[in-house]
From TrEMBL:
Entry similarity comment: Belongs to the peptidase C48 family.
Pfam families named among the record's database cross-references: Peptidase_C48
Listed GO biological process terms: protein deneddylation; proteolysis
Record protein name field: Ubiquitin-like-specific protease 1
Occurrences of domain Ubiquitin-like protease family profile (ranges): 108-266
Gene3D superfamilies associated with the record: Adenoviral Proteinase, Chain A
Key words of the record: Hydrolase, Protease, Thiol protease
InterPro entries to which the protein is assigned, alphabetical: Nep1/2-like, Papain-like_cys_pep_sf, Peptidase_C48_C
A molecular-function term among this protein's GO annotations: deNEDDylase activity
Length: 296
């Protein structure tokens, strides 16, 4: 049962609510079972067909209420790979392949060792994360005209050591981008910072839900903006830290995958709560195929 719940989105969603709020879930099941105007219609249907539907429907209703999210997002959660789109026929122009077996995406070079980090229970490395975020960014620009900027994780490392002046990116006009993404690795844990310059908002999608870490890096980001302002010779841009709901990871090695899944949701303008632990293994395969094929 543990194996199935970890791989099945529908079963995982139901068991999660059964564990955390079994009474509410039971009331939802009873309520939905009484909605049919003709209860006798169920008489000719096997309980084995009716009960699973009620279980899933009750889980969807409860998730919508608890997380104050829309039904479409919750229904996406039931998919094996939420928020994935058919491949575009055009290849990513930043893609290159070398005779040494390296795959280049933008300025990042991927080796076989990098791809091995996408195997189950492996800790995904920064090379893979940055490459996939570049692919996502290009995809959303082509499909939805969503302009986004991916900053290197080394920027966050420098900021965590109070070095805000080395990399200010003062020649990069943040204000033209709808979204600025910064993957962060802090104490062997990956999470995703997202800035929306036009709204002057800052989000922190952390699969460990650490408020302390969120506050710390929000301060680092503000100091970074001050350094940018000084390099520009103008007042720093304001930003407000916003509530950043996302799913919590259930293991010790999927934080990097959550960075990629949450980034996919943000760039698609969808709720990151769509992406859950049960999607992790399939998403590892999805990322590997997208990067190797070099097509969207």
């Amino acid at each position: 049962m543990v194996l199935e719940s970890g791989q099945s989105p529908t079963l995982s969603l139901y068991l999660k609510h059964q564990q955390q709020s079994s009474e509410d879930l039971g009331r939802c099941v009873q309520f939905l079972s009484r909605l049919s105007p003709q209860p006798s219609a169920f008489a000719t249907i096997s309980p084995y067909d009716v009960v699973p539907g009620l279980m899933v429907a009750s889980s969807v209703v409860l998730k919508c209420l608890n997380q104050k999210t829309d039904p479409d997002s919750v229904i996406d959660t039931l998919k094996t790979l939420p928020l994935t789109t058919p491949k575009l026929k055009r290849k990513m122009p930043l893609l290159s392949r070398s005779t040494r077996g390296r795959l280049g995406i933008g300025t990042t070079q991927l080796t076989k060792e990098d791809f091995k980090t996408l195997a189950p229970r492996e800790w995904v490395n920064g090379q893979v994360i940055h490459s996939f975020l570049a692919v996502l960014s290009w995809e959303q620009k082509q499909e939805n005209n969503h302009e986004s900027l991916i900053l290197p994780c080394l920027l966050a490392t420098k900021c965590s050591h109070n070095d805000y002046q080395t990399w200010t990116f003062h020649k990069v006009p943040f204000h033209i981008y709808e979204t600025v993404l910064l993957p962060v690795c802090h104490k062997d844990h990956w999470f995703l910072m997202v800035a929306k310059p036009k709204q002057q908002e800052l989000y922190n999608y952390d699969s460990l839900h650490s408020i302390e870490r969120s506050n710390m890096f929000a301060k680092h980001w503000r100091q970074f903006l001050i350094a940018r302002g000084q390099a520009y010779g103008m007042a720093p841009q304001e930003c407000t830290w916003m509530e950043s709901p996302c799913s919590r990871k259930d293991d010790g090695h999927s934080c990097g995958v959550f960075v990629m899944m949450n980034a996919a949701a943000v760039l698609a303008r969808r709720n990151p709560l769509v992406m859950m632990q049960c999607h992790v293994n399939n998403y590892r395969v999805f990322v590997r195929e997208r990067l190797i094929l070099g097509e969207l």
